Amino acid sequence: MHPFDFYLKLGFEHISNLAGYDHILFLVVLCAVYRAQQWRNILILVTAFTIGHSVTLALVSLEIISIPSNIIKFLIPTTIFITALHNVIGSNVGNLSVSMKRNYAMALFFGFIHGMDFSNYFKALLMDPSDVLIPLLGFNIGIELGQLLVVAVIVGISFLFLDIIKAKHRDWNVFISGAAAGMALISMLENKFW
């Protein structure tokens, strides 16, 4: 069996790998409606996402649930598209009254879906499926650390554009969310399962 740090590193590399841009794109669009000063809200959302994908990762790894990968490959860009659409028409950009409960529930639910994709990768790495606890813990912590790094970069870029260059927050959100929605729509069409 591989040690804890092996799975920690794999989890970190999995989320921070640009080849797996769909998870990074989801984090980008999740953060688009927030300013750097709202970092606590961002951390709450990322934690909700982590809880969601951790639960699903555990359930799939323990073979309690199973979803065909072609459906997951369609659902992941769908989560990005819905989040981007919500950012533009369903949120109050720039205002602290943005419904954190709704955003939290969305991040948690969409985390369940993203966890299904993580689980396919994770299951392929498991040498002994009966001893899943340490690998699962290491992999999840690695993913969380990778997500925090990605979010720090996103928040830094947001700070640059919104607070230094003084771009309008609404314009920033529409640009980022629109680009993410376009990329997600292309991916949805490429991965349709019907």
From TrEMBL:
It comes from the Bacteria. This is HupE/UreJ family protein. Keywords: Membrane, Transmembrane, Transmembrane helix. The chain crosses the membrane at residues 20-36, 43-65, 71-93, 105-125, 145-165, 172-189. Pfam families: HupE_UreJ_2.
